[in-house]
Amino acid sequence: MIFDEIRQVMIGILRPYADSVQKMTASQKLLVNCDLMGRVRLIVPSRAKNDTELEKIVEIIAQKISEQLKPHTFDADRVILYEDDTDAVINDAPTSKLLSDDLDTHYDALKNVWLVDRLIVGGNWAKITDETSSSPRIVFFSIKGGVGRSSSLAATAYHFAQLGKKVMVLDLDLESPGLSSALLPEERRPEFGITDWLVEDLVDNGNEVLDEMVGYSTLSRDGDIWVIPAYGRKNERYVAKLGRVWMPKDEQAWSERLRRLIDQLEDRLKPDLILIDSRAGIDEVASACVTSLGANLVLLFASDSAQTWNGYKLLFSFWRDAIDVAKIREKLQMVAALVPVNNRDQYYSSFIDQSSALFTEFFYDQMDAGEIDGWNFDLNSADAPHYPAKILWHQGWSSLSSLHEKLVDADDSELKLIFGQIFEFLSPYLDEKGQQHV
Amino acid sequence: MNADFKDAHERHWEDAEHLHEKELLANADYLYGLSAECGLKAIMQKCGMKLDGKGSPENKEDRKHINELIPRYNGYRDKFTTFDFEQLPPNLFKDWHVDHRYANRSNFTAQTVQTTYGDAFKIYELVRRAIINGLMK
User: Which residues of B touch A120 (CB under 8 A)?
Assistant: First the structure.
């Protein structure tokens, strides 16, 4: 029993008692209340309690819910809540009819049964997890979308797979997923995705979907590319699932749960390299990717625009105030995206100025004259985190939707021309840490 | 016996309602106050209040009766980012005191119990919301 099945199972439970349900709901809604953890309770109008016959039916329904919906519900004695005013209980939570209007209209008796979803958003920017000691985890992050972050990740996965490596790719852009389509044709999309696991994990049911959430990309010839998409083929009620992804469980923040998922996948697949596509922006997912997943390296994609630099300023100032800067700064690396073919040098030079100013303001140690110890870099020091790897702008590689076809017929020299600096940058991580699996 | 704040909240509430209905005002008033104290402590626990081995609050400042507990609750509530529990006005239960259990019953009028009931109901609702949202079983 998984979250996706709740609606259908509930319909199946209530149908035989449709007449009684109709009596209960003559003047008040009956609510199938799906709580923050994705567990169901039935909120019943109090009038049913004053009618012995109806009360008995409610008890039978509670028993069936408990038997058929576990782990997404409670023991029977906790399934029912009586309320005088069930409308008031909804309290602005997203609500939809249990039976959609275009479906099952002949079950008119259930028309006043509603599904209520309790959802939440919350996150933890400030906690930094130590980097992982097994396969290197590389996060691809950008403040703004449309800078070629996902394309670069797809190309990187392809490149290292061609070199015989096993690459595991996670699409954590949960609210705007796209990466997996670039690496997997739709028919190879696995049944479930990261969102499903995070929801099932809330009720200790993660293993139910774990085996069916890995897609194998046919792009890889010598190595392997495993793709763990944001969502799977079974993506009913995606928004209702997304709203529960952020829930903490047993004192574990959602991002720690995510890390647990990645640890489990890593243990099963034994990849040489783990590439993580982070959502653009300063939000929950991005926060987790950068701080909580045990990343070895966070690639910060940027184009040279005021909006981008202002975004990074907000992010860096938060980190500087909230966390131990020394824990994050050595993992960061700027990437200059969308570098134009014409005026390349001018663009690059302006980028370095901005990037250097940003790191100097927030992350570099202030050095007095004559001081030599300290974490600081010159403007044009190629080892500096502000000194960017370059990705050239190229029409053919700018659209994620056509990326799969593009990779099928990829020309290695063209790939190296556009993304080569990223490949070079990541190679040492693979040499140091990936060898044990090769 | 170990403390179970949520269950204690519920049983005190149920008994208070029975007594109130039968106009046994003095003990209804007392139990509404205890119900609110236990309910609020159950929520404070969800918001991060630590308990000792016997299930009592670790911090002595949290071992208060309801007339002194609201600021402690608001403090925990402010730091809890997972769920937006309602902030409570600090003047709830300002005329309730646990020592009233020693007082003569003639001191308790329908009006005083109604006020205590109104204050306790706010906490009853708070717990109910926590249950509906799945923060408490």
Answer: 82-83
Chain A interface residues (partner B, CB cutoff 8 A):
33, 35-37, 39, 41, 43, 74, 78, 81, 89, 91, 118, 120, 122, 247-248
- Predicted pLDDT of residue B12: 97
Residue matched to tokens 């790719």: A169
pLDDT at position A322 is 60
**Which whole-number Å values give the CA distances from B72 to A225, A411, B41, B67, B79, in the listed order?**
53, 65, 10, 11, 11
pLDDT at A382 over 50: yes
Rounded CA-CA distance B77/B43 in Å is 9
Q: How far is B128 from chain A (nearest CA, A)?
A: 9
Reported ipTM: the value is 0.73
Hey, are the CB atoms on A120 and B81 less than 8 Å from each other? no
Q: Is B135 on the interface with A (CB under 8 A)?
A: yes
Q: Given an 8 Å threshold on Cβ–Cβ distance, is A118 in contact with B82? A: no
Q: Could you tell me if B129 lies within 8 Å of chain A, comparing CB atoms?
A: yes
Nearest-by-CA chain B residue for A41:
B132
pLDDT tens by residue, A14-58: 999 999 999 999 999 999 999 988 999 999 999 898 899 999 999
pTM higher than 0.90: no
Q: Residues A137-154: what's their mean pLDDT?
A: 89
Residues of chain B with pLDDT under 70: 81
**pLDDT, tens only, A247-256:** 878 767 788 8
Taking contacts as CB-CB distances below 8 angstroms, the residues of chain B near A36 are 83, 133-135
